[in-house]
Amino acid sequence: MNFQQLRSVREAVRNGFNLTETAHALHTSQPGVSRQIRELEDELGLALFARAGKRLTGLTAPGDHLLPIIERMLIESHNLRQAGQEFLAQEKGLLSIAATHSQARYALPVAVQEFRGQFPDVRLHLRQGSPKQIAQMLLDGDADVGIATEALGDYPQLVAMPCFRWTHSLIAPPGHPLLDGPLTIERLAAHPLVTYDSGFTGRTRIDQAFAEAGLKPNLVITAMDADVIKTYVELGLGVGIVAGVAFEAERDIKLRAVDAGHLFGINVTKLAVRRDAYLRSYVYTFIESFAPTLTRRAVEAALGSGEVEENYVSLDAILESVA
Fold first, then answer.
1. CA angle 226-126-306, nearest 5°?
2. Are strands 313-314 and 218-223 parallel, antiparallel or unpaired?
3. How many angstroms separate the Cα of 284 from the Cα of each of 95, 104, 144, 299?
4. What is the mean pLDDT of residues 254-276?
5. Domain coordinates of the chain in residue numbers?
6. Could you tell me which of 50, 165, 273, 286 has the fewest CB atoms within 10 Å of its CB?
7. What pLDDT is attached to residue 82?
8. Closest alpha carbon to 276 in 96, 71, 87
């Protein structure tokens, strides 16, 4: 039994039992993948895959039972390499961070700058995606840390820890009627709206607020990031709802903002790591730099229990403290 055989099984499942795609993912040949799977099945004395001729069509009952064990073995082999590298190079290596655009653009820069000053020999790899994509990157071992507001708490294989609270803001050109007087959901529903795609940056709370009021928002444009939303609001295509931190008065001179927290509530951004991951020392340092309440002790406690005390501050307070 070897790790290449285990990887062949795992990738075959991930690629929908398509051996051509599996071979591409493993940078090998299709016959090579078939041989690795057959050799493992012969050694185990079990058929892991159901077949139609030479095609794989699914997992057998033994295959379905053994797949989680195979995945754990591959994760532990990755952890073993990480632990070895920890002692070979305490302050060198790679830190891969997966985040939504809003987090990467507005929340991460200060922490990244501080981290780079402390660990100049650690390479940072910033990856962007939807919350679900970020969760998958963590599950696949392609990211050490994931940051998002949505979805990360939905996966039992991940430990999602609250970092900071934030609210949405209404943005509109100067002189727009919504900027004067109390902002209500009824007044907002009467205007075309530009905001986040479903599943991004607190969009769930926006939808809930309209639904609870028995109203349907007039969504004219949705996008993944605030910069795109602000562009179309500046063009007069609608009013925008963005994360409050995404409005920068000194840059967004063609727009004005009004806090909409009373309409859409408080959102909590979470930082997640894989429950069984081995975290190098500098990963803990980055996490605490990004979210000061998430000390190494707090993260280790969360990894042990799956829970973390909800002791967080607002993102604005964190950014102001380092300004």
1. 90
2. unpaired
3. 11, 18, 11, 8
4. 94
5. 3-86, 91-162+270-321, 168-264
6. 50
7. 67
8. 71
Which CATH fold would you assign to the domain 3-86?
A: Arc Repressor Mutant, subunit A (1.10.10)
The predicted model gives 190-218 an average pLDDT of 94
Global pTM reads 0.67
What φ, ψ does residue 248 adopt, rounded to 5°? -120, 105
Rounded Cα distance, 161 and 269, in Å:
9
Q: Residue 235, CB half-sphere, CA atoms under 13 Å: how many?
A: 11
Q: Cα dihedral angle (26, 27, 31, 32), rounded to 10 degrees? A: -70
Q: What is the mean pLDDT of the chain?
A: 88
> What does the block give as tokens for 199?
């599943």
Fold (topology level) of 168-264: D-Maltodextrin-Binding Protein; domain 2 (3.40.190)
**Tell me: domain 91-162+270-321, CATH 1.25.40.180, correct?**
no
CB 245 within 8 A of CB 107: yes
For 60-110, what is each residue's pLDDT tens digit? 998 888 888 888 888 877 767 766 665 545 567 889 999 998 899 999 999
> Using a CB cutoff of 8 Å and minimum separation of 24, what contacts does 9-18 make?
9/37, 9/40, 9/48, 9/63, 9/67, 9/70, 10/67, 10/70, 10/71, 10/74, 12/37, 12/49, 12/56, 13/59, 13/67, 17/49, 17/55, 17/56, 17/57, 17/58, 18/56
> Token pair for residue 37?
């799977």
